[in-house]
C-alpha cells in the first residue's frame, strides 16, 4: 500500500469516526432533551432545597418543606401541571448540582458574576431584600449615620456582603466580626454588641428566636435582588418561562404572600417584618 493510499484511507476512517461521534452525540442530546422538554414530557419539576429560613425549612417532625423558595416551586409546578419533587442539596453545591442535572431550578440563589459563568439566571428577579439591622431597644437607627459612631458596637458575619457593606458605610462604628450567624446573634443576645447587620428576612427569624430588639432598614436602603439558578443549555425556554412566571408572582403580590405565610407558620406577625417587595418598604417604619 502506498503512503498516499494509506493516508486517504486513514482520512476516510477519521471522517467516518468523526461522523459517528457527532451522530452519537446528537442522539444523546436528543434523548436527554432540554430541561423544558423534560419537565413538560415527564410532568415533574425538581427543585433544589436546603435548610435556611425563611428560604427553605424542613419540619423535623413531618419532614415537610416550606419557605419562600419551596412555595414558589409549588405554584410553578401547579401552573405547569407537574409533580413537585424536592431534591436536597447545599448552598455550596447548588451550582454543581444544576450542572449535573440533579434538579431543574434552585430558588433564592443570587445571580453573581461568578455563578453566571457556570449556570443561567432569568432576567427578572425573584424578590428583593435589604441590608437590615437588628438593634437593641432604645438605639436609634432610622439612618445609617445614626449608627456611625465609635460607641455603637455592630456584629457582622465575617466575609459576607453585610460585612463588606457595613465596613465601607460605617467607618466610625465599632464593628465586630464572627465566623457564623449563630455566633453573631449570640453576641447580640448576650449584650456584647448593640446591633447585628444581616439581610432583613434572616434577621426577622433571628429576632423571633431571641425575642429582643427590633429589625429596621436604615436609610438610604441598600437593596439587593435574589434569583433562581437553572442549568445552562442551548434551549432557553425553561429559563425564559421561569423569569416571566417569577415576575408575574411578584407584581401580583404572590411572592409577598409566600413570605407572609411562612412567617405566620413560625408564629411571626408579618406586619412586624419588612416585606420582600421593595415597593412596600416605606410601610415599615
Structural description of this entry:
The chain has 285 residues and is α/β, with parallel strands linked by helices. The protein has two domains: 35-126 and 227-278, D-Maltodextrin-Binding Protein, domain 2, CATH 3.40.190.10; 129-223, Periplasmic binding protein-like II (D-Maltodextrin-Binding Protein, domain 2), CATH 3.40.190. Helices cover 40% and strands 18% of the residues. The protein has nine helices and twelve strands. It has helices spanning 3-32, 35-42, 68-80, 94-99, 161-169, 181-189, 200-210, 237-251, 254-265; strands at 44-49, 57-58, 65-66, 83-88, 106-107, 127-135, 153-157, 174-178, 195-199, 214-216, 223-226, 228-229. Strands 6, 7, 8, 9, 10 and 11 form a six-stranded mixed β-sheet that branches. A two-stranded parallel sheet has the order 1-4. A two-stranded antiparallel sheet has the order 2-3. Helix 3 packs across helix 9 (254-265). It is elongated and about 60 Å long. The chain starts with a helix and ends in a 20-residue tail after the last helix.
Based on the model shown, name its key terms.
285 residues; alpha/beta; D-Maltodextrin-Binding Protein, domain 2; six-stranded mixed β-sheet; two-stranded parallel sheet; 12 strands; 40% helix; 18% strand; elongated; disordered N terminus
- The CATH architecture of the largest domain can be given as 3-Layer(aba) Sandwich
The secondary structure category is: alpha/beta
C-alpha end-to-end distance: 89 Å
List the total number of helices. 9
CATH superfamily of the largest domain: Periplasmic binding protein-like II
The CATH class designation of the largest domain is Alpha Beta
Label the overall shape: elongated
Largest sheet: 6 strands, mixed
* Poorly predicted runs: 2-31
The CATH topology assignment of the largest domain is: D-Maltodextrin-Binding Protein, domain 2
Amino acid at each position: 500500500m502506498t503512503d498516499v493510499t494509506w493516508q486517504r484511507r486513514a482520512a476516510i476512517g477519521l471522517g467516518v469516526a468523526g461522523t459517528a461521534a457527532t451522530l452519537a452525540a446528537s442522539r444523546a442530546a436528543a434523548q436527554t432533551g432540554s430541561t423544558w422538554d423534560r419537565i413538560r414530557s415527564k410532568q415533574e419539576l425538581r427543585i433544589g432545597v436546603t435548610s435556611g429560613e425563611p428560604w427553605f425549612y424542613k419540619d423535623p417532625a413531618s419532614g415537610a418543606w416550606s419557605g419562600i423558595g419551596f412555595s414558589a416551586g409549588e405554584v410553578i409546578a401547579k401552573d405547569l401541571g407537574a409533580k413537585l419533587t424536592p431534591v436536597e442539596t447545599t448552598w455550596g453545591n447548588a451550582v454543581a448540582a444544576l450542572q449535573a442535572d440533579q434538579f431543574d431550578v434552585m430558588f433564592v440563589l443570587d445571580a453573581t458574576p461568578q455563578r453566571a459563568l457556570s449556570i443561567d439566571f432569568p432576567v427578572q428577579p425573584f424578590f428583593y431584600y435589604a441590608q437590615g439591622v437588628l438593634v437593641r431597644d432604645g438605639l436609634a437607627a432610622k439612618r445609617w449615620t445614626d449608627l456611625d459612631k465609635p460607641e455603637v458596637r455592630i456584629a457582622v458575619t465575617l466575609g459576607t456582603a453585610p460585612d463588606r457593606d457595613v465596613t465601607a458605610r460605617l467607618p466610625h462604628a465599632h464593628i465586630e466580626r464572627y465566623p457564623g450567624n449563630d455566633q453573631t446573634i449570640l453576641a447580640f443576645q448576650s449584650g456584647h454588641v448593640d446591633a447585628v447587620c444581616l439581610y432583613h428576612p434572616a434577621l426577622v427569624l433571628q429576632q423571633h428566636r431571641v425575642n429582643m430588639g427590633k429589625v429596621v432598614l436604615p436609610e438610604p436602603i441598600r437593596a439587593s435582588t435574589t434569583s433562581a439558578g437553572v442549568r445552562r443549555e442551548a434551549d432557553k425556554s425553561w429559563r425564559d418561562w421561569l423569569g416571566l412566571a417569577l415576575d408575574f408572582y411578584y407584581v401580583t403580590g404572590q411572592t409577598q404572600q409566600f413570605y407572609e405565610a411562612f412567617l405566620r407558620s413560625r408564629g411571626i406577625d408579618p406586619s412586624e417584618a419588612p416585606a420582600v417587595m421593595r415597593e412596600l418598604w416605606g410601610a415599615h417604619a
